[in-house]
Design brief:
This is Succinylglutamate desuccinylase. By secondary structure, this protein is an alpha+beta fold. It is built from eight helices and 20 strands. It folds into two domains: 285 residues, Zn peptidases (Aminopeptidase, 3-Layer(aba) Sandwich), CATH 3.40.630.10; 72 residues, Beta Barrel (OB fold (Dihydrolipoamide Acetyltransferase, E2P)), CATH 2.40.50.
């Protein structure tokens, strides 16, 4: 293992931060995999999983079992880690700008990449074309000048991930079951990981509308393929997914060890780590469209009493939560229109009218436009 330090632009006099990446194996020998954790800095279960994974990868490398390259960034957001206000940890949005740390990632356009490589593209070598375009992508990101700390963090993360065949972004939700967001194109390659992790929900979308970290990689290669057409074949370095490691309070060694071992099993199955791949268990739940998930909202303000457990399989019409008004004594029950998994919910127990309260998977698309929240 070797460590690289990536200094970020200083925000104010007397301050400095850096990003640390840990590198295992060699991309010249096989596939390259990039993993990062806690881009939303207050999503600690992902960070503990990444730390546990780092110990396992170091041991596996010492045994000579690396057959590709693995780049791990266990603390993907040192800016957000410093944001505490009156005892509250605020890691989802950058305090200076209000920007969500995992939205609107700036990638070079497919047209600009194709223009840069020009006539060097091959009419018959898909792997050559992928290497060429990937190299151009890394060059263009490296030529971009960050104006502030926030932009420099984004560029550093994109630069590391853009070299990889597989990009895994480790997160968690508020209160949730293990679930995964990925694209239909990436899903066949991600399915074994969902099995090893025991994902209780898989949400598929080609473009959820937020330009999140994992999606910008897949979307760029989709656009490149479309522009190049059949006459210029292109490999597929666009396997990307967001892994939601349950809820923010699910922080313990046993859970982190389970998830880290599942990722190792997946990397063995892909041939990035030498070893005999374990049989993947059955998929806990079939993948469903993100556009099919029902977004439950609070119809009134009051005390929230959840009647469905997170991770429960619900039928249409089942009660999900009550809202109790202690002044008027009214109790409002919210039910689900979907039959599916109640895969995430809010952690607070007093809400305002219109607050997003949770989501239930669904097999049929019922939404369009931007499919993810702020």
């Amino acid at each position: 293992m070797h460590t690289q330090r990536h200094p970020l632009v200083s925000t104010t006099l007397g301050t400095s931060r850096e990003l640390a990446s840990f590198h295992f194996g060699d991309a010249a020998n096989g596939e390259s995999v990039y993993l990062q954790a806690s881009l939303h800095a207050d999503e600690t279960p992902a960070m503990l999983t990444a730390w546990t994974l780092k110990q396992r990868l170091a041991a596996l490398e010492a045994e000579g079992r690396m057959r590709g390259e693995i780049v791990l960034v266990p603390v993907a957001n040192p800016i957000g880690l410093s944001q505490h206000v009156l005892g509250q940890f605020l890691g989802r949005f950058e305090a200076n700008s209000g920007h969500n740390f995992n939205r609107d990632f700036p990638m070079p356009s497919a047209a600009a990449l194709i223009e840069r490589v020009g006539a060097r593209l091959s009419s018959g070598d898909a792997a050559h074309n992928a290497r060429l375009l990937r190299g151009a992508l890394v060059e263009m990101l490296g030529e971009t000048t960050a104006k502030n700390e926030f932009e420099s963090l984004r560029l550093a993360l994109l630069g590391l991930a853009s070299k990889a065949d597989v990009v895994l972004d480790l997160h968690c939700s508020l209160e949730a079951t293990m679930h995964i967001y990925t694209s239909p194109a990436s899903w066949p390659a991600i399915e074994p990981l969902a099995r090893y992790l025991g994902a209780n929900g898989v949400l598929l979308a080609t473009d959820s509308g937020g330009q999140s970290f994992d999606e910008v990689h897949a979307l760029l290669w989709n656009e490149l393929r479309e522009r190049l057409g059949d006459a210029t074949p292109l490999g597929a370095p666009n396997i990307a997914a967001t892994i939601e490691h349950r809820g923010q309070r699910d922080v313990d060694y046993d859970t982190a060890s389970h998830d880290a071992e599942a990722i190792v099993d997946y990397l063995i199955a892909r041939g990035v780590i030498e070893g005999e791949a374990k049989d993947a268990p059955p998929l806990a739940q079939a993948a469903t469209p993100l556009a099919g998930s029902q977004q439950l909202t609070a119809p009134a303000s009051g005390i929230v009493v959840y009647r469905a457990k997170v991770g429960a399989r619900l039928q249409a019409g089942d009660p999900v939560f009550d809202i109790v008004d202690p002044v008027t004594d009214s109790v409002t029950t919210v039910t689900t229109a979907n039959g599916g998994v109640f895969y995430m919910r809010r952690a607070v127990r007093f809400v305002y009218a219109g607050a997003p309260m949770g989501r239930v998977t669904g097999e049929k698309a019922i939404r369009s436009g931007v499919l993810i929240g702020a």
